[in-house]
Predict the structure.
Amino acid sequence: MRMRSIAIGALSALLLVSTAACAEDGDDGTGSGTGEGGIKTGLKVAFLPKQVNNPYFNTADNKGGKEAVTEFKGVYSETGPSEASPSAQVSYINTLSQQGTDVIVVSANDKDAICGALKEARQAGAKIVTFDSDTTPGCRDIFVNQATAEGIAKNQIKLISEAVGPEGGEIAILSATANATNQNAWITLMKTELAKPENSKLKLVDTVYGDDDDQKSFQEAQGLLAKHPNLKGIISPTTVGVAAAARYLSGSSFKGKVQLTGLGTPNQMKAYVNDGTVKSFALWNPADLGYLAAWAGAALASGKITGKQGEKFTAGKLGEYTIGADGVVVLGDPYVFTKDNVANFDF
Amino acid sequence: MAERIRRAAGSWDFLVLVALVLVVVIGAVSIEGVASPRFWRFVILEAIPIAVIALPLTLLIITGEIDLSVASVLGLSCTVMGKLWASGVHSLPVLVLVCLALGVLCGAVNGLFVTRFGLPSLAVTIGTLALYRGLAYVTLGDKAIADYPTSWTDGAVAPIPGLTIPWMIIVVAVLAILFAVVLHATPVGRGLYAIGNNDEASRFAGVAVGKTKFWLFVATGAMSALAGIFWTLRFASARADNGNGLELAVIAAVLLGGVSIFGGRGGLLGVVGAVVLLGVLRNALQLADVPANALTIVTGSLLIASVVGPNAVAIARARLRRRRPTTSIPTTP
């Protein structure tokens, strides 16, 4: 009998916690109207990352997304599973559609597995924006793509060319795995870029694969320098590779003599930018990505766009965007991090 | 009769059902959406694979064994189904039969190691948990097979006409009744409790201990594979990581349902109640915007409570029973 009352007490306590959380959150009460630029006010916009507790998504959602939602006077929330699994994400999509969310901004853990749930959410009236990682096009209204393959290739060649200097020289690529689709697409486009007359002084002498493994990438970077004594620069378009290569260079006699650039995250690269190993590297700015996705969702939910190719919408401070084929919006050129701005980021 | 009702009211099964009703009532009053039919649709869709695996696992745990490989069997069944579909096997009955056979095989391997070689099921199934998941990755790698006909994928989650509740619940209900009859109304079922309480003694009493356990492992494997087929169609995606970690959700439900981890005690009513209770609690808290980190704390605490709770109840009841005769017998100085 005592056990029973304890059990019941515990369960009621659990629910009390939940009701308190509910009350705290409360109903938005803002009601909906139409604000600036024809965007409705009071829109409920929910961000659903691949998983919570991930610095990349914290920046995208809580910095960029939240800023945009505040600008168009909506109600912002971020929710999601603690592990990056599609089935857990489905459960959260179901919850959001029951809560009458107007816009769901989601980074998909599986391009098909969350489709059924998204379909039910759309039937319940939600607009779906995918960002960072897309679903099958039929399952969402708009995909906000961080960068195009062309944009990345062009940017990487420009950065290495600037770092190496006008006299040019031999360069090499440290990639992830030999059969990574995105890496190979970028490498092919980088070769196209190198064939252009303005890059004629740069000569690609080698491409090696670090398999996105820290140790292997470190050894491959070491191997490149042993094999090519005249090497002037390395491009590593993968976050694992560029960080490992930077660690090797910064502790070697090649520091400052052999240039390095690539796609990296500020937290991993800060130290190497500050000690002079790396002049600049690139990635997209996740805060801008979240910001743009929120505005795209607001434009959809306000009926200003439907996701068709050629439609235009304004995304606050980022300006005007045009929807491309398959409902894809491209954020823009990769964002370049240097000594001057790297301290402003935390992801 | 009155004694029976009193005993039932004090049982863990009853507590679980009371807790379920309480959670539903409090949830419906305080959290917007819990009372809606859509809420129940989502809760049930989530609960179906857990319930399907929990049914045979309850019987297995009552005999004092455990199977930790259930979620890996589910994952392997998903990938084999996906692989076959991708290579041109487009008949659902064939796919179901192959997956069931695979589940039987996986369960038989577990059963053989435990009953033939006398190895502890905990160790054996930790091994096969990794082994079967590994085979799933061998089958599909990091690919996902997702191009099933919509008639299958929509069919798997279709509601009962006129309602929002998925029709699959009927299948699960029939299975639950089947398992409940076996456990609670047949000599085989009584044998399971005997094995769980003392398998040495029940062997001498003529219960086929090894054979019974072996077939329970097989049944658990088969039902896990069945859950895998549902999983694949519900999410329209066969992936090697499908159902990763689901074994914990299933075992949590079985233990919260009042089944003793040491065997010999528990029943299916409590387990089914616990599956629904955990589903409702999770979804309701999610609706109330409780963050994922807090949710795992709730599930963890409930699991601890479920291990401690029934034992505490049993100890309390035993003490009560012991005290009663001593008070009725006058003590001599």
Notes: The two ends of chain B are 38 Å apart (CA to CA). Residues 27 and 197 of chain B are 38 Å apart (CA to CA).
